[in-house]
Structures are given as C-alpha cells and as structure tokens.
Design brief:
The protein is an alpha/beta fold. The chain has a single domain, classed as 3-Layer(aba) Sandwich (Rossmann fold). Helices cover 34% and strands 19% of the residues. Strands 1, 2, 3, 4, 5 and 9 form a six-stranded parallel sheet that branches. Strands 6-8-7 form a three-stranded antiparallel sheet, with no helix packed on it. Helix 1 crosses helix 5. The longest helix has 18 residues. It is globular and about 40 Å long. The termini are close together.
Length: 167
C-alpha cells in the first residue's frame, strides 16, 4: 500500500479525535497534514488521501475547506484516491446530516479523483444527506453528539475496508 495522508483541521475537537483513532487503526503510518495551512502544491503531493470534513451549521463546509475550494476546483485529481470522513449531528440537523462529506466528494469526483470508503446508511436516523449515494454514504459519517460509543467500532471497520481499497 502506498503512503496515505490524512488531512483535517488540527484545531477541531471531534474531527481530530476521529483522526487520532484512524491513525491508531493504521498503526500510526499516516502522514498528518493540517488542512488549515495547506497549499494547492502541498495538496497535490499525495496520491492517497483521507480527508476529515465536519459539517457546519445547516450543511456547510467548514471555513478552511470552503476557502480551499477554489484551488481544489482548478486541479486535476485523476489517479488520486480519496476516503472521506466527517462529523455531523443526525438529531440536531437531520435534514443535512454530514452534507459536507457529499459536497467535498462531489468536487473530488468532478475533478477526476476516485472515492473509496463508502459505508451503508444502516444505524443512522436522519431525513436527508448530500453524502448519500443510493443507500450508502460516500464516506464515513460520525455522530459524536448522539452515537459517540459507535465511533470507535465504525472507524475500526472502515479502516479495515480502506486497507483493502487503497492500492
């Protein structure tokens, strides 16, 4: 398996906690990158990515991802592989649960990137999500507000899936 970079905001609580669990499940082998400070050139230096993207407010990308979007929309991501995870609140925001995963995933696919790490929507209760593709999410949703105890087993299962899907 080629090197994998995990990009997330080091200043977040839940996304950082998930990143640490993902890193542990990979045996500490991931290159950690603070997405708040990344340039387009630094972003393009990798081939395999795990991107942490929590959903803010009513289904929005966090500021740091939103500010990076113009750069992302200009690049060719063909030959690059991406797995997405993100935090959301399915009770407080059921109409846009983990929308940010879907927003980022759409741009990645439009730019030629390959998404992996799709997860079934079983065990979640929500109304709508831009991260849904049929009956699967285009990444790993984590709800630390309402299902905190399920985060660790979900991450462990997802990482085992990624180990098979990253080449």
């Amino acid at each position: 398996m080629k090197d994998i970079a995990i990009l997330y905001s080091f200043n977040t609580q839940k996304t950082s906690r998930a990143a640490k669990m993902i890193q542990e499940s990979f045996g500490g082998k991931l290159k950690q990158v603070n997405v708040e400070n990344i340039t387009k050139e630094e972003f393009l230096a990798y081939e395999n990515y795990i991107l942490g993207v929590p959903t803010w407010f009513d289904g929005e990308l966090p500021n740091y991802w939103d500010e990076f979007m113009p750069d992302l929309e200009e690049v060719n991501l063909k030959g690059k592989t991406f797995a997405l995870y993100g935090a959301g609140d399915q009770v407080g925001y059921p109409e846009n649960f983990v929308d940010a995963i879907g927003l980022l995933g759409k741009v990645i696919e439009e730019r030629g990137g390959k998404l992996i790490g799709f997860t079934k929507n079983e065990g979640y209760t929500f109304e709508n999500s831009k991260a849904l593709r049929g009956d699967v999410f285009c990444g790993l949703p984590l709800d630390f507000e309402n299902q905190a105890r399920q985060a660790k087993p979900r991450i462990a299962a997802w990482v085992e899936q990624l180990k098979k899907e990253f080449k």
